[in-house]
Amino acid sequence: MDQATALSAADREGNDTCNRSSPTKQRTIDSVITDYSPFSYEQKRTLIIAAISVLFVSPQAGLMVFVTPLPEWTCQRPPTDKYTEPTAAVGLLVASEKERCALLERGQCSPNYSNPSGTASAEFGLICADSGRVTYAQSLFFTGMLLGGALCGRLSDGYGRRFAIITAAVLVATGSLMTTVAGSFWSLALARCLAGAGVMICVIAVSVLFNESVATSLRGPLAPLSGVNFGLGMAAVAPLAYTTRHSWRLLVAVCTIISLVNVVMVWRYVSESPHWLHGNGEHSRLQQLLMTWSQSNATPIPSSVFNSLTSTKKKHARCLTSAVSSNRQESISLLPFLSKNFRYLTVTLLWAWFTVCLVFYGLSFNMNGVGSSVYVSFFIISVMDFPAKLSGAWMLQYWGRKPLLFRLMLSTAIFTAMSAVMAKLKTSNTSQGLLQLISSAQLLLAVSGKVCSSVVFSLVYLYTSELVPTAVRTGALGVCGVVSRLGAVVCPFIIRLGYTDQAIPSIVFSICAFLSAMSMTRWPETKDKELPETLQDLQQRIRKK
After folding, report:
1. Are 172 and 60 in contact (CB under 8 A)?
2. CA distance linking residue 464 with residue 341, whole number of Å
3. Which tops the pLDDT comparison, 514 or 402?
4. Higher-scoring residue by pLDDT: 16, 404
5. For residue 174, pLDDT beyond 90
6. Does the model's pTM come out above 0.85?
């Protein structure tokens, strides 16, 4: 019998008892928050601090662009009969990097960096045969995000959303501090891996906290805020890096100070999720939290409401406790609900996460024509998340989660397909004016595709957190985050195919996005629905779609 669908006799009996003896007016956490504290001052403070936490950790994702770029260097030789100057920059005579590397390998010259303290790659000599290590450092940051996504479920579902956010802040601060004092390339790479884990845990845990701490009607407008802050934090790295362009350690030190401030901030002001407190039987803490929220909203909660919540919890204790305890032990193994009831939804949801990350980073890394400066280019690419996420919040007021996700993913497929057509047209035209026009059109289409994928990236967090049960919500987002980062890992290999034919990457992105959009047509809607507490709640929602 399928393990995912086979409930024990005791579990089935508990579920039946729970359903039969439900009170006439059953109180849920969502209904209590909606009636007594939809968005109080205390809730605003918690969510604002949580959003600022994302803003403060997101620069870590952009550091590697400015810390480990390939350095500019020339090959400096000692004086010889041929070169009578005290020193001669062979780079002026030997333009090819391959030739300079050959001279360096034979010991006939030494590297002369234009900005020796500006990048870690120059300080650690990551040129020629060692230049590939730059890619390793960037890959290890994504590896850290993979590990963070896997670890986030155990931290957040087992110990609380607040604990996960604090842990993330500590990991980011530790990784940033280790980067500042790194004495070798491998210590730098390890530090970036640690910071990457913290960034991923923070993004997932904050996303869940947003959805579990406000009234149902406010989840849509508020959900993109954490994504907006991530883009703004990334964009802020560019001017900061330009200001500290002569010392990469100074750049990282500034980010470290910001990370340390973030640790103190989330420790003092971020409160726990009421859904997590209710699902884990923390009734006294739940009552204290909700009373604080409602009093700041001038609508105190009657004691009968708390009694109703406690009674509901006890009547559902058998199914909920079984779900919570099993997820604490196997929070990740339960997530791929590969039973008959959940298999299609699980596979297509994971494919959507993989695709949106693949397309998002693919279009970002493949946009070399944006500006002539790496600082300007990176700023433009990152700051575009701001209007994208805000437009997503606005569109959520008029469409549900499912139709909006479908339309945006389909639009991404169309824009990237048209970009591939432009790439083909460039190879078949020789007119300079026409080539410039086609290049501009290709860039505009790529930017449009990135904006759509950016909105999908934000909305898929909201949809997933509204879809899966409370006991495994953060774990589900963690597994989805891991799958999405696999898309980021595959992305450079797809882009490399563009050296053979510039249209190939856009074609691959378009096909993946189109398949994902088509698979969304059978998803259930989650707009204005209460968050599911158990697998049975999710199954009922799938049947009613």
Report:
1. yes
2. 17
3. 514
4. 404
5. yes
6. no
Answer left, alpha or beta for residue 124, where phi above 0 means left and psi between -120 and 50 means alpha: alpha
Q: How many helices (H) and strands (E) does the chain have?
A: 24, 3
Structure-token match 């810390």, residue found: 67
User: Residue 363: is it exposed, middle or buried by C-beta count within 10 angstroms (0-12/13-18/19+)?
Assistant: buried
- pLDDT at position 165 over 80: yes
3-state secondary structure of 5: coil
234: enclosing H helix or E strand: helix 224-243
Q: Which amino acid is at 203?
A: V
The Cα 541–Cα 157 span in angstroms is: 22
Helix (H, G, I), strand (E, B) or coil at 88: strand
- pLDDT digits 0-9 by tens, 102-145: 777 777 777 777 777 778 878 887 777 776 677 677 778 878 88
Our measurement of the distance from residue 341's CA atom to the centroid of its chain's CA atoms, rounded to an integer in Å, reads 28
- Of the CA atoms within 13 Å of residue 168, those in its CB half-sphere come to 39
Place of tokens 């996420």: 389
Most confident of 84-98, 317-331, 459-473: 459-473
For 133-184, where are the alpha helices, taking DSSP H only?
A: 133-159, 161-180
Which range of 5-14, 65-74, 259-268 scores highest in mean pLDDT? It is: 259-268
| Distance from C-alpha of 153 to C-alpha of 161, rounded to nearest angstrom | 10
- Cα–Cα distance, 423 to 427 (Å, whole number): 7
Task: List, in order, residues 6 or more apart from 503 with CB less than 8 Å away.
Answer: 420, 421, 423, 424
Residue ranges in 244-342 assigned as alpha helix (H): 248-269, 274-279, 283-296, 303-315, 317-329
Contacts for 294 with CB less than 8 Å, ≥ 6 apart: 36, 37, 40, 300, 301
Q: For residues 120-146, b (16+ Cβ closer than 10 Å) or e, as one string?
A: bbbbbbbbbeeeebbebbbbbbbbbbb
Cα dihedral 99/101/103/108 (nearest 10): 150
Q: What is the pLDDT of residues 216-240, one digit of tens each?
A: 777 767 766 666 788 788 888 989 9
Beta bridge partners of 75: 111
Q: What is the distance between the alpha carbons of residues 78 and 220, in angstroms, rounded to a whole number?
A: 66
Reduced 3-state DSSP string for 18-36: HHHCCCCCCCCHHHHHHHH
Do 220 and 397 meet the contact criterion of CB atoms below 8 Å apart? yes
Fill in the DSSP letter of residue 76.
E
SS3 110: strand
DSSP 525: P
| Average pLDDT of the chain to the nearest whole number | 76
Rounded Cα distance between 240 and 388, Å, is 23
C-alpha separations of 9 from 142, 440, 539 in Å: 43, 65, 19
Q: Which residue has the higher pLDDT, 197 or 338?
A: 197
